[in-house]
Amino acid sequence: MAVGPGTLPEFFPVKGVRLGIASAGIKKPGRKDVVVFELAPGSRVAGLFTTNQFCAAPVTLSRKHLTEKAPRYLLINTGNANAGTGERGMKDALACCEALAQHAGVSAAEVLPFSTGVIGEPLQVQKIVSALPEALVSAGDNRWAEAASGIMTTDTRPKGESVRIDLGGHTVTISGISKGAGMIRPNMATMLGFIATDACIAPEALQALASELGEASFNRITIDGDTSTNDACMLIASGQYGGPEITLDSPHLPALRDALKDVYLHLAHAIVRDGEGATKFVTIQVSGAAARQEALDVAYTVAHSPLVKTALFASDPNWGRILAAVGRAGVADLDVSLLEIHLGDVCLVRDGGRAEDYSEARGQAVMDQEEITIAIDLKRGDVCETVWTCDFSHDYVTINADYRS
């Protein structure tokens, strides 16, 4: 199950970025499960990583390599997270980097590893190493669609976006892919996300964009409230577009930021739309908050409520569950007589109770829709935040009960 059509866009090649895909058979024989990004010399990479204290070995190693060298290759495998694997996990991640580096004629520190899949099982290093020649030989500048499929785990469909904009008379291309369907409440970015542009972006501007855009998109989605051990979202700038370097004070930065934001949001929303067992795409808007954290606390309390999420799956306008979640979100001195809660265009709560003009039929009409907005106005200030989530269906339990089988 998934919400919306979920079709991939026409991908535009990003100058200076090539992708290769291969089959290592890590979890299923014949499955394309290894993806390699090859970056032109001079490319710059910035990113965000999981805040989970049991972060996976590839997360630790990628962080380290980013401080040592400018990346030339990204190596992604699915089927095994290489998380909860201790010292052996670090050695295995490094061994994969060293093998790719040897094939490509670069140093191991110029390779960033990424893994996703089952936690706690040793990485099948030899299978990955054996697949590297195929991945490198197959590399091309427009294999984005195949790479989007190659990084999937429990996803039911690949996720990607690609746009072109004019920047000072030069065409800038942005293409990206993401994966994720469960164990998603990122405290940084997403499960795995890779966005590349041929713009030339100064290092400080690149990291600022990666942080700002990741926070406003991937860091505002949740499927089940679980933060993965392997979250990573990388922003790549190859610098091949032919124009000047874009800095923090460049007049072209706002237009580039807007285009990147569209790609980030599309990829983040695609994860929610493909949430494990999802049948609803839900936007939770909190306005009138006194502080940003207050708004997020309310939004996430509603988004994570199993009672709200199961009511959404049943298309049941049981608005009392939303009201109860808002009330337990921990907002100090909340005046419930002032706030309002809307379901789509229908007011549910006003003056501390059910809105006088509310009717079950009107609430039902909204709940029957695939895409639903829950808007909560706390009437305490001028801070607004938005979080995106989905419902909980029978299939969510089935998928996760059968995950290792």
Automatic annotation (TrEMBL):
Ligand binding (substrate): T153, K179, T190, E276, N400, S405
Site entry (Involved in the stabilization of negative charge on the oxyanion by the formation of the oxyanion hole), positions: T116, G117
Listed GO biological process terms: L-arginine biosynthetic process; ornithine biosynthetic process
Protein localization: Cytoplasm
Keyword vocabulary terms for this entry: Acyltransferase, Amino-acid biosynthesis, Arginine biosynthesis, Autocatalytic cleavage, Cytoplasm, Multifunctional enzyme, Transferase
Active site: T190
Gene Ontology cellular-component annotations: cytoplasm
GO molecular function list: L-glutamate N-acetyltransferase activity; L-glutamate N-acetyltransferase activity, acting on acetyl-L-ornithine as donor
UniProt pathway annotation: Amino-acid biosynthesis; L-arginine biosynthesis; N(2)-acetyl-L-ornithine from L-glutamate: step 1/4; Amino-acid biosynthesis; L-arginine biosynthesis; L-ornithine and N-acetyl-L-glutamate from L-glutamate and N(2)-acetyl-L-ornithine (cyclic): step 1/1
Pfam family, one: ArgJ
Catalytic reaction list: N(2)-acetyl-L-ornithine + L-glutamate = N-acetyl-L-glutamate + L-ornithine; L-glutamate + acetyl-CoA = N-acetyl-L-glutamate + CoA + H(+)
Function, in words: Catalyzes two activities which are involved in the cyclic version of arginine biosynthesis: the synthesis of N-acetylglutamate from glutamate and acetyl-CoA as the acetyl donor, and of ornithine by transacetylation between N(2)-acetylornithine and glutamate.
Record family assignment: Belongs to the ArgJ family.
Family annotation (HAMAP family): ArgJ
Protein name: Arginine biosynthesis bifunctional protein ArgJ
Species: Marinobacter antarcticus
Gene: argJ
